[in-house]
Amino acid sequence: MSGALKSSSKEFVRAAVLICLLTASWPAVIPSVAAANSAVLEERIGRILSEPPYRRAQVGVHVVELGSGRVIYGRNEERKFIVASNEKLVTAAAALEVLGESYEFRTTVLAQGDIVGGVLHGDLILRGGGDPTLGGRYEEEDALTIFRRWAAVLKARGLQQVTGDVVADDAFFDRISRHPNWSENEASKWYCPTTSALSVNDNCVVITVKPGASAGSPAVLSTTPEGAPVELVNLCKTSPKRQGIWFEHKGEGNVIAVAGLVSQGSAGYSQQVTLPNPPLYAAGLLKEALETEGIEVDGRARLAGAGRVQPAAAVLLSAGGASAAVQPLCVRRTSLIPVLGVMLKESHNYYAEQLIKTIGAETSGTGSWAAGLARAGAVLREMGFRDTDFNLDDGSGLSRQNRLTPALLTGLLSRIWSSEHGPTMLSLLAAAGEEGTLVRRLTAPPYRGNVRAKTGYINGVSALSGYATTRAGTEIAFSILINDPSPAYSMREVRDAICRAIVDCAE
Prior knowledge:
With 507 residues, this protein is of the alpha+beta class. The protein has two domains: 36-101 and 335-505, Beta-lactamase (3-Layer(aba) Sandwich), CATH 3.40.710; 104-334, CATH 3.50.80.20. Helix content is 32%, strand content 25%. The protein is built from ten helices and 22 strands. It has helices at 3-49, 87-98, 143-156, 278-292, 336-345, 349-364, 369-382, 406-417, 422-428, 491-505; strands at 58-65, 71-75, 104-116, 119-127, 161-162, 166-169, 204-210, 220-224, 231-239, 244-250, 255-263, 269-274, 296-297, 301-303, 314-315, 330-335, 390-391, 403-404, 430-431, 452-458, 461-469, 475-483. The strands form five sheets. Strands 3, 4, 5, 6, 13, 14, 15 and 16 form an eight-stranded mixed beta sheet that branches. α6 (349-364) crosses α7 (369-382). Mean pLDDT is 89; it is low at 1-33 and 322-326.
C-alpha cells in the first residue's frame, strides 16, 4: 500500500470517527436547542406581561408542534378561561364531526290542502331547517328578494290564490329564541341574536330614525324591509342639536320601543335591531312576496300551532291542477361549509347559535341549546378531553359561563389538523392581514397569511387560537387566552404581541 493511500485511509478513519461522534451527540444537542428556544420564548412573553398594565391579567398560553404534539411552551395551560368567540372552534369541530362536511340545511315551502284551478284550498307552509343564510349582513340577497323569486316560481307553476294562511313551521328548533345567560342590556344588538329554525335577515330589522319637522316633534321612523311585521313604539323626539338613540324590546311580540333624541340637522340614523319572534317575521315576508307577485292570500301570516304542521298533509301543484304526490313546492339547500366560513372568519354569533341547535336537532330530535351542547361535549370527550377541561354554555361565546383551557384548544386544533377535516378547518379560519376578523392585524411578514386563527372578544376577555408556521419552519397550534375584568389597555395589542413572539421564537 502506498504512503498516499495510507494517508488517505487514516484521514477516512478520522472522518468516520468524527461523524460517529457527532451523530452520537445529536440527541443531546436537539433538546438543548429546543430548551434554549423555549427559554427565549418564555423570557419574551414574560417581558410582555411584566409591563405594569398587564400584570394583573390572567393569561393562558399554549403552543404545540403539529403532528408530534410536542409542547413548545405553556403558561396556565390547564386553567379554564372565559374564551369569548374561541368557543366557535368547539362548535365548528362538533359540526364537522357530527353533521359532516356534506351536510345541507333545508328550507321548504309546502301546500296543506288541495290545489284546484290554481287555488290552494288551505295553508301555505314555510318550514325552517335552521338555515342562517336567508338574507343577512354577510349574504348577497335579503330574504324578501329570495321569497319573491320563490313566489315567481309558484306563479309560473299556476298558483293564483291561497285561501288559508301563510304558516311558519319552526318545529325543528325549540321556541326559546334568546339565551338566558346573555346580557339583557344588549338584547337589541345584532350581535346578540335571536334563534329559530325559521330565520331570515339575521333575525334583524333595520330601523331608521329621522328628525321630525321641528324641535320637540316626534322622530320619523321606518323599517327595512318596509313590510316587516314589527310594531314600533315611538318615544324618540327631535332635538335642536343633541342626539342619542336606543332601542328596546317590549314584551314577547315584535314590539320595539325607539327612544332618545335625534338631532334636527341629522340625515338620520339606522341600526339593525333583533326581533324576538323570528318565524313570524319570515312568514310575513313570504306573504308580502306572494302578494307582490300577484298571488292572492286570503289569510294572514301566523305561527304553526302546538301540534305544528304534519309533512303528510303537503301536496304538489300538478300540471292538471289536481292534487299530486306529497312533495314540497320549493326547497332551498345550503351547504354547511360556507356557514362555517362565515361563523369563523367573520365571527358571526347568529350562525354559531343556529349551528349548535341544528346539532341538537339532528342528533337528538330536539333543537335546543341543551341538546346541541350535550353533543358538542360528547365530541370533546370522544377526543380524550376531560369534563374538568371545559364548560359549554352556548355556541358563539357570548355567555361568560363558557370555559375552556388553552391546552384543550390546542389539542382540539391538533386533532382536527390530523383528521380528514384538517384542510377544511385551515381554510375556514381568518388569515392574518388578509381576511375576516384578522384583515387589519398581524399584517407584516412572517405573520401575514401565515397565522390562521379565531379571534375572540367580550368585555374583559380576549382570545386568539389557531395555526401558524414559525420562522424556523415548525407547524404549530397555539392558544392565547386573556381574562382581565377591567383592562386599562388594548387587549388586542398584547394578544398580538404574544402571537408575534410565538412565531418569531418557537423552534
